[in-house]
């Protein structure tokens, strides 16, 4: 059985002799299992203008539709397909290949991650689908295929296990990174709800800075009381001499002392007073 890695290795790069077909847009359908579900309308409009002027510069990749002979499903290039429709084209240049299902999902995810970032939720579901449908494929291998770290894969998969307010924020696309989602989920429910309500009102995503600012500050630990020393009388040691605190020195007394020592006028601050004394004591 051909592994996913071997299957993918055979897909890139395309052979120079491979035929590029002009396929009717009416015979093409988006793949319902494509990881990306939403495409920005403004981006499609810009791409449509480019296609009207220059045509489709890179062919899309299609595979035969197993449920509809004579029709094709998009493997990669759905943005070009949608923009071509907006540009009122009737055909699109395409490569046509038979691709094993597991390799197909990885290939689609690679294209989306490299071109335009998916929503974290979309990425998480795509990763889970690939791993569950590909026995023996490890997170580290999938990370290598995507050009990401294993931590990146595991952090996205963790998104699937959040519930409550965090789940709502993810589904509404108001948390744009796994790390922000993790920190957000650790907040008290009241703080999470407040941040979510603010994001809904402004339409702006919840930022890591906002989450960090909402983290409650832990009270400073109390200083433990000093443990009394054992009685010296019981230990057989001589008693310590008692220290008698010196009375406070008045400004007049300090001035008289400076005059007697020939130190000039008394400085304004206590720190400067000590500096004068230390300088006098220096050898």
Number of helices: 14
CATH topology of the largest domain, which one? Answer: Arc Repressor Mutant, subunit A
When the domains are counted, the total is 2
Q: How much helix is in the residues?
A: 40-55%
Please report the total strand number as a whole number: 5
Q: Kindly estimate the percentage of residues that lie in beta strands according to DSSP.
A: 5-15%
The CATH architecture of the largest domain can be named as Orthogonal Bundle
Q: What integer value in Å does the Rg equal?
A: 36 Å
Mean pLDDT: 77
Q: End-to-end distance, in Å?
A: 88 Å
Shape: elongated
CATH class of the largest domain: Mainly Alpha
Order of helices and strands: HEEHEEHEHHHHHHHHHHH
Give the class from helix and strand content and strand pairing: alpha/beta
Molecular structure report:
The protein is an alpha/beta fold. It is built from 14 helices and 5 strands. The protein has helices at residues 4-9, 41-54, 78-86, 101-115, 120-133, 139-146, 150-158, 164-171, 178-185, 189-202, 208-214, 232-235, 251-260, 270-281, and strands spanning 21-24, 28-29, 60-64, 72-76, 91-96. Strand 3 and strand 4 form a beta hairpin. Helix 2 (41-54) packs across helix 3 (78-86), helix 5 crosses helix 7 and helix 6 (139-146) packs across helix 7. The longest helix has 15 residues, at 101-115.
């Amino acid at each position: 059985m051909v592994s996913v890695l071997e299957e993918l290795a055979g897909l890139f790069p395309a052979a120079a002799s491979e035929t590029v077909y002009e396929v009717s847009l009416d015979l093409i359908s988006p793949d319902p299992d494509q990881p990306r579900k939403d495409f920005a309308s403004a981006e499609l409009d810009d791409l449509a203008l480019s296609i009207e002027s220059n045509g489709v510069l890179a062919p899309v990749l299609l595979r035969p539709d197993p449920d509809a002979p004579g029709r094709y499903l998009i493997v990669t290039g759905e943005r070009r397909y949608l923009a071509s429709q907006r540009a009122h084209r009737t055909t699109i240049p395409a490569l046509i290949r038979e691709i094993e299902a597991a390799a197909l999902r990885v290939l689609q995810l690679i294209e989306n991650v490299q071109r335009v970032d998916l929503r974290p939720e979309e990425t998480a579901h795509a990763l889970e689908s690939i791993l569950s449908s590909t026995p023996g494929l490890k997170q580290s291998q999938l990370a290598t295929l995507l050009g990401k770290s294993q931590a990146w894969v595991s952090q996205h998969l963790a998104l699937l296990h959040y519930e409550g307010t965090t789940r709502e924020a993810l589904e509404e696309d108001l948390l744009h990174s796994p790390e922000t989602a993790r920190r957000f989920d650790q907040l008290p429910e009241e703080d999470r709800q407040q941040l979510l309500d603010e994001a809904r009102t402004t339409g702006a995503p919840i930022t890591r800075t906002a989450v960090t600012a909402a983290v409650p500050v832990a009270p400073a630990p109390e200083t433990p009381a000093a443990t009394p020393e054992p009685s010296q009388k019981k230990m057989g040691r001589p008693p310590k001499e008692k220290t008698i605190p010196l009375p406070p020195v008045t400004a007049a007394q300090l001035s008289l002392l400076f005059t007697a020592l020939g130190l000039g006028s008394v400085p304004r601050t206590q720190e400067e007073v000590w500096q004068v004394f230390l300088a006098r004591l220096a050898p």
